[in-house]
Predict the 3D structure of the following.
Amino acid sequence: MKPYLKLFFVMLLIGLLVACNTDKETSSNDNEGNQNIEHNTQNDENNVQNEGTNEETYDLGGRTIRLNFHVDLTPEEGTETGDLLVERWKEVEEKYNVTIEWTEIPYEEKIEHLTTTVLAGEPFADLVRMDPTQASGLAQEGLIIPLDDIIDLSQSKMSEELKEAGRVNPDGKVYMMDTLRSFASGGGMFYNKTMFQQAGLEDPYELVQRGEWTWEKMLEAALTLTTGDQFGLAADPNRLAEYLILSNDARILNTETGEIVMDSPEAMEALEFMADLYNVHNVIKPNDRSSNWEDPPVFFNEGLVGMVHGESWEATDERRDTPFEWGYVFWPLGPNASEYGALKVSGGGYVIPVGVEDPEIVYQIWEDLQIWEYERDHLHAEYENILTNQESVDIANQMLDAVKISKWKQYNLHDAFYGTFEAIMNGDETPAQAVAKVKPEAQARVDEFLGK
């Protein structure tokens, strides 16, 4: 047996040696593999950093890029949003080697000045903020550049809603550029919470939560709040008509067919309700101080009315300083509607005049100036700052994703209804008479705009 034992121990010793060597190799390979993984991870991190630092840059030779509006929109430090905008401003100037200026021109001079300077071959600004009606006329005259012609819109940071709002010409191209910050500014109702509480009325916010904030409930509240010199509502009849039509899921114009549809049953129901608010129930305070659009917010701030239409930006310093508590909610639902919406009856955006040098880079400069990644957070923070209670903040935040747009003014209709809604307000004409009177001319304007 001894020879076999010797052979056994020799084989065992060889096996142990092989195992040890294998473990060493495996350990060495594992360490090498770990080093490779670590090295590759570092490379990935470097690649990510390089992707950020290798972003394409441009050298426009110190050129001045001017953004124009009828008020000063120069970003200012001192707030979180302002600090970010100023920081982005500096980054963009360095990235493109430009100087960026925000300039002003009176609203009523903007169209003429743009037209004159474009025709002279020297646009007075690289980007000009316009409302849809102004942009529409300029597009029809070929004085502003469609974004479709200079960029790939699918790569734009604008949402589909923003792109749709920027289509102001029958050619279907996008001419205006905008951000969520200015686009989704609400379109609801401010109400005097103190007045509602003292009258024993249920808070509209609670009614919204149950889906019961309706025209009928608004009327009930307005009737209760109208006592002596106090009224339930203040309103601009033009804004009121549009809000009522939109909140009943109706329209003034069918933009797909180009047909005036303000005589539809749903739109007429809205105008008839409006006529009753003024002439049957008498719950709207007359605008007897200044004008239809200036008086209503002042009446509300003075505590003379219980409710007024408005957008979130109308929570001004004067409104925040009122001696009573107020809230902000969706505009009430009409009988034909099932979902609340932030009602948008006007808007705007920047356009690029024809003749601007390197318009595709100018667009990119505008896009790079925006704080897209922080926009919602800063809107939420802004609502926290300007609205006086959490309920109103919650509603304003919901409005960001519930915009209902009324697009009709840019179809050559911006001044078509002057006097129409005032006639209904004053009781001079019934809704049926007022609509029948204005519809033929309005339809002719739309047909002309569409080239029919």
Q: What stands out?
A: The domain at 63-184+348-380 is CATH 3.40.190.10 (D-Maltodextrin-Binding Protein; domain 2).
